[in-house]
Amino acid sequence: MTETQLSAEDVRAIADLARLELSDADVALYQRQLSDILDYFQKLQELDTSHIDPTSSVLPLKNVMRADEAGPPLTLDDVVANAPDSDGEQFRVRAVLDGGE
Question: What separation in angstroms does the CA of 48 have from each of 37, 38, 51, 53, 98?
Answer without folding.
Answer: 20, 18, 8, 12, 64
